[in-house]
Design brief:
711 residues; alpha/beta; Rossmann fold; seven-stranded mixed beta sheet; 37% helix; 20% strand; flat
């Protein structure tokens, strides 16, 4: 893939941009209070709990002379020096005035806790939002929020948040936590504490009126102490910036584990094409996350599960698991759960099975799952012997051992020792809360307590590992190609869509194979066209105002002679008159018949991430089955092959049920050509070919539609 043309910060530049906000050396609290359990007091309690130097703390509140022995000033103008960061813990109207006063003092960064701005649908909220934006337009200050729980540098003990958890002695380490919901990111922080996962930063982004999600990620990228980014997001406001920083995080070996919510919301309002209706927000985000090797998690808890599994340091390249239990029932239900989650449970080699059979009683299982039987309770050395065999197998890199409570405690030394000897991921499933769980985690053996959560989280983790191992994808900028003159003439006449014949003219000019056809304005022209093309033919209504002709009986196929053609013409015209008398009819398309499986190739422009390719089952059942795969452009041959492999209808290309094998290579080439064409023609808002018929040799665009972007 060609590289992005966006300007990248120089080394350290991303760090410098938000240093005052996330790595301040001095802090002022506006609205400080001696009641350390209130919003104006919790940040001070957090700073003091981590021994932040008192001489580098400034407090502002006219009600007090001092708080906790630290001088308190009546207003911002009275402050004796300029701090790096101001925590604004006052109500929204006062917060705006405070920002202006801080800006006059030269304060480079602020955290605004108050709500009641853009998230408030009232006139008052709109007014405050406008006032905040007016301030930001004339200031260089970096403002976290508003409507934020705050930020914290956990490594340095700098708390600019009213989350009380951050005042605790938290484990320090490589995980940067960021969320567009304060509650969700605080849940992640509590999980990290409970699981002993070390953190570098805590960021509640709030409304992101000033500092957007991706800019915080720039800071994490530049920070040498951050090794992974864990997040919760509801909306990515700057698509190009997110794509750019996500690519560079991957280049730096820093994974992102994100929960993106909104999957159950209806997609954007249906657009002209099937593609537009199916390429909804959630589907596009899934495609983006897959291409960027971002683990797409269902909720904050699963984000933390990804961090737990990643923190083991295990090297996982294969997608399956090996299940080990001392219960046949445990083997059975875990096998079902992993199958339901889409995780393979591959049979082990005959060599491995023979080695295991020499250890496990004959009434056990050795193929995978592996039933140790209750005999292991009397002789834990059997577990060690089994684990030594599994450490060498090639079929799986992940071993899930279902063993509970005191038995896990007894097995813990063996599992910890084996983890030191192998890079395989070892996960213990223990619903009884063994005492050895913290020691196991510290040794790189992760412990789960719920079987469904184990299966679901491992499925996400193993999928992420496959994406992480794939070639790096990059966005790119493509020089635009001017709009053809004949389309410009249509636009000047008020047109914003192209009919079927016009789409195929556009594609034929680009060298994309289209079906042999002719436009007829009356029955006589249709008869002459059919004679020239050769029967059988298809007859299709041509109207710029009717996108889906088959829905109103506007398509007839396999017309074998002149009598049938006349009858088909009459039926289609009658259907159009009865169902769409308001639509202008330009005539009909007489078209050669083509045979083969039907596919859809569609392209739209997502408001956040740009051009999106959709490939899937074509024909009249496209929206019924919604068997589609999406990618954000650009794509290469390997990516298109991967898209086809994801489709349930993919076997149609291989000659399903005695049908001839279809020309898969021709379909891939057409998809690539159409994607490249769409990238280079930004005047197209949507472009869809449906169906594309894939024959034994070559493939042909049979029908299509397009929408022209607004100026």
């Amino acid at each position: 893939m060609s590289g992005t043309t966006q300007v990248r910060p120089e080394p350290g530049e991303g760090m410098a941009m938000l240093r005052s906000l996330l790595d301040p050396q001095s802090v002022a609290i506006i609205g400080a209070t001696p009641e350390l359990g209130r919003i104006g007091g919790i940040p001070l309690a957090g700073l003091l709990a981590h021994d932040f130097p008192r001489e580098r703390i400034l407090l502002v509140n006219p009600k007090y002379d001092a708080i906790e022995g630290i001088p308190c000033y009546p207003d911002i103008a009275s402050l004796p020096w300029t701090p790096d960061l101001a925590i604004v813990a006052v109500v929204a109207p006062v917060a705006i005035a405070s920002l202006y006063a801080l800006d006059t003092l030269g304060v480079p960064a602020a955290v605004v806790f108050a709500a009641g701005f853009g998230e408030d649908p009232t006139d008052g909220g709109a007014r405050l939002e406008a006032e905040l934006r007016a301030f930001l337009a004339q200031s260089t200050m970096h403002v976290a929020g508003p409507n934020t729980m705050g930020v914290a540098n956990i490594r340095e003990g700098i708390c600019a948040s009213f989350l009380t958890t951050l005042a605790e002695d938290l484990p320090k380490g490589p995980l940067a936590l960021i969320g567009q919901s304060g509650n969700s990111v605080s849940m992640m922080a509590a999980d990290a504490r409970d699981f002993g996962l070390g953190m570098s930063y805590f960021v509640s982004t709030g409304n992101e009126t000033s500092v957007e999600f991706s800019r915080y990620c720039e800071h994490f990228l530049a920070d040498p102490g951050t090794g992974a980014v864990l997040g919760y997001c509801e909306q990515l406001r700057d698509g190009p910036a997110f794509l750019d920083v996500a690519v560079r995080l991957r280049e730096a070996g820093k994974p992102m584990f994100l929960a993106k919510v909104g999957r159950s919301d209806k997609a954007r309002e249906a657009t002209l094409s099937h593609t537009g209706a199916m390429a909804g927000n959630a589907a596009v985000h899934d495609a983006v996350f897959g291409q960027l090797a971002i683990a797409a998690c269902r909720d904050p808890a699963e984000v933390m599960d990804m961090a737990r599994l990643w923190a083991t340091g295990a090297k996982v390249t294969r997608p399956g698991v090996c299940i080990v239990s001392l219960s046949g029932a445990g083997c059975a239900f875990l096998a079902d759960m992993f199958a339901d989650a889409g995780v393979p449970v591959p049979s082990l080699s005959s060599t491995a099975q023979a080695a295991l059979s020499a250890i496990i009683p004959s009434y056990g299982m050795v193929s995978n799952p592996i039933d140790l039987t209750g005999n292991v309770i009397n002789d834990m050395s059997q577990l060690r012997a089994v684990m030594e065999v599994l450490a060498t197998v090639e079929e799986v890199d992940c071993i899930v051992i279902y063993i509970m409570g005191s038995l896990l405690d007894a097995a813990a030394p063996i599992l910890m020792d084996m983890r030191r000897k192998t890079d395989k991921l070892i996960v213990a499933l223990d619903p009884s809360h063994a005492q050895s769980a913290p020691a196991l985690r510290a040794a790189g053996v992760e412990v789960f307590t719920d079987s469904l959560r184990t299966a679901a989280s491992l499925a996400t983790f193993l999928d992420w590992r496959q994406a992480w191992a794939a070639p790096l994808w990059r966005p790119r900028a493509v020089p635009p190609t001017p709009m053809p003159g004949w389309i410009a003439d249509l636009v000047r006449g008020g047109r914003r869509t192209l009919n079927e014949a016009e789409v195929k003219r556009l594609l034929a000019d680009a060298g994309i194979s289209v079906v042999s056809e002719s436009v007829a304005v009356d029955e006589a022209e249709a008869l002459r066209a059919a004679d020239a093309i050769g029967y059988p033919v298809a007859l299709k209504l041509l109207s710029n105002e009717i996108a889906h002709k088959s829905d109103i009986g506007g398509v007839e196929l396999g017309i074998g002679d002149t009598t049938a053609l006349r009858a088909a013409w009459a039926r289609i015209m009658d259907n159009a008159q009865r169902q769409r008398s308001d639509a202008a009819i330009e005539g009909m398309v007489v078209q050669a018949m083509a045979q083969g499986p039907e596919f859809l190739i569609g392209l739209t422009r997502d408001a956040t991430f740009g051009a999106v390719l959709t490939v899937g089952l074509g024909g009249v059942y496209t929206e019924l089955f919604r068997d589609v795969s999406l990618r954000v452009l650009p794509v290469d041959r390997g990516m298109v092959e991967g898209m086809l492999a994801e489709l349930r209808c993919a076997p149609l290309l291989e000659g399903y049920r005695g049908q001839p094998q279809a020309d898969r290579e021709a379909l891939v080439s057409m998809i690539l050509a159409l994607a490249d064409f769409f990238e280079r023609h930004p005047f197209l808002a949507e472009l869809e070919l449906n169906p594309v018929i894939v024959g034994a040799r070559g493939c042909t665009a049979v029908d299509g539609l397009a929408a022209i972007a607004g100026q």
